[in-house]
Amino acid sequence: MDRRLLDLLCCPVSRSPLGLLGPSDRELINLAITQGGIKTVDGVTVIGALANALVSADRKVIYRIVDDIPVLLPEEGIGTAQINDWQL
User: pTM (2 decimals)?
Assistant: First the structure.
Protein backbone atom coordinates (compact mmCIF):
# COMPACT_ATOMS: atom_id res chain seq x y z
CA MET A 1 0.00 0.00 0.00
CA ASP A 2 1.22 3.47 -0.88
CA ARG A 3 2.71 5.17 2.21
CA ARG A 4 1.09 8.52 1.34
CA LEU A 5 -2.35 6.90 1.27
CA LEU A 6 -1.69 5.10 4.52
CA ASP A 7 -0.79 8.41 6.18
CA LEU A 8 -4.23 9.79 5.23
CA LEU A 9 -6.35 6.88 6.41
CA CYS A 10 -8.07 6.78 9.77
CA CYS A 11 -10.57 4.57 11.55
CA PRO A 12 -14.08 5.60 10.42
CA VAL A 13 -15.39 5.24 13.99
CA SER A 14 -12.67 6.50 16.33
CA ARG A 15 -10.79 8.64 13.78
CA SER A 16 -7.54 7.18 15.12
CA PRO A 17 -4.71 6.55 12.65
CA LEU A 18 -4.48 3.19 10.91
CA GLY A 19 -1.36 1.13 10.32
CA LEU A 20 -0.59 -2.00 8.35
CA LEU A 21 -1.18 -5.22 10.24
CA GLY A 22 2.14 -6.93 10.90
CA PRO A 23 2.92 -10.47 9.71
CA SER A 24 2.70 -12.07 13.17
CA ASP A 25 -0.64 -10.39 13.90
CA ARG A 26 -1.94 -11.38 10.47
CA GLU A 27 -0.92 -14.97 11.15
CA LEU A 28 -2.75 -14.88 14.51
CA ILE A 29 -6.00 -13.57 13.03
CA ASN A 30 -5.82 -15.92 10.03
CA LEU A 31 -5.49 -18.85 12.41
CA ALA A 32 -8.59 -17.65 14.25
CA ILE A 33 -10.45 -17.23 10.94
CA THR A 34 -9.65 -20.79 9.89
CA GLN A 35 -10.99 -22.01 13.22
CA GLY A 36 -14.28 -20.31 12.33
CA GLY A 37 -14.87 -17.99 15.24
CA ILE A 38 -14.18 -14.52 13.86
CA LYS A 39 -17.03 -12.16 13.00
CA THR A 40 -17.26 -8.63 11.67
CA VAL A 41 -18.80 -5.89 13.81
CA ASP A 42 -22.02 -6.60 11.89
CA GLY A 43 -21.97 -10.25 13.06
CA VAL A 44 -21.00 -11.85 9.74
CA THR A 45 -18.51 -14.73 9.98
CA VAL A 46 -15.22 -13.87 8.27
CA ILE A 47 -14.36 -16.40 5.58
CA GLY A 48 -10.97 -16.54 3.92
CA ALA A 49 -7.57 -15.49 5.19
CA LEU A 50 -6.50 -11.87 5.20
CA ALA A 51 -3.74 -11.16 2.70
CA ASN A 52 -3.35 -7.67 4.10
CA ALA A 53 -5.18 -5.51 6.61
CA LEU A 54 -5.10 -2.28 8.58
CA VAL A 55 -5.31 -2.00 12.33
CA SER A 56 -6.42 0.98 14.39
CA ALA A 57 -3.85 2.74 16.59
CA ASP A 58 -5.50 1.34 19.73
CA ARG A 59 -5.37 -2.16 18.12
CA LYS A 60 -9.08 -2.74 18.78
CA VAL A 61 -10.31 -2.94 15.16
CA ILE A 62 -8.94 -4.52 11.99
CA TYR A 63 -10.03 -3.50 8.48
CA ARG A 64 -9.44 -5.81 5.52
CA ILE A 65 -7.63 -4.73 2.36
CA VAL A 66 -9.17 -6.35 -0.71
CA ASP A 67 -7.39 -5.99 -4.07
CA ASP A 68 -5.29 -3.15 -2.60
CA ILE A 69 -8.45 -1.28 -1.54
CA PRO A 70 -9.03 -0.71 2.20
CA VAL A 71 -12.54 -1.70 3.28
CA LEU A 72 -13.22 1.05 5.81
CA LEU A 73 -16.89 0.42 6.46
CA PRO A 74 -17.55 0.39 10.24
CA GLU A 75 -19.76 -2.72 9.98
CA GLU A 76 -16.99 -4.58 8.10
CA GLY A 77 -14.42 -4.03 10.84
CA ILE A 78 -13.17 -6.99 12.86
CA GLY A 79 -13.07 -6.44 16.62
CA THR A 80 -9.83 -7.77 18.08
CA ALA A 81 -11.37 -8.65 21.48
CA GLN A 82 -12.56 -11.93 19.93
CA ILE A 83 -9.00 -13.02 19.00
CA ASN A 84 -7.23 -15.17 21.60
CA ASP A 85 -3.76 -13.93 22.56
CA TRP A 86 -4.27 -10.55 20.88
CA GLN A 87 -2.04 -7.87 22.43
CA LEU A 88 -3.47 -4.36 22.81
Answer: 0.91
Largest Cα separation within the chain, whole Å, is: 35
25, 9, 6, 82 alpha-carbon torsion, rounded to 10°: 0
Structural Rg of the chain based on CA atoms: 12
The pLDDT of residue 37: 84
Three-class HEC string of 21-88: CCHHHHHHHHHHHHCCCCECCCCCECCCCCCCEEEECCCCEEEEEECCEECCCHHHCEEHHHCCCCCC
Strand partners, 85: none
pLDDT of residue 1: 67
